[in-house]
Amino acid sequence: MKTFKTLLLIARPAAGKSEIINFLKNTPTEERISRFHIGKFTEIDDFPMLWTWFEEDALLERMGYSRLHTTPDGYFVSQHLWDLLIERVSLEYQKLMRDFDGDTVIIEFSRGSEHGGYQSAFAHLFTDILKSLVILYIDVPWEESLRKNRARFNPKRPDSILEHGLSDEKLERLYRKTDWHDLIHDNNGVITLQGIDVPYAIFENADDVTTAQDAKLGVRLETTLGRLWKSYQSIHDSTQQ
Question: Across-strand partners of 192?
Answer without folding.
Answer: 197
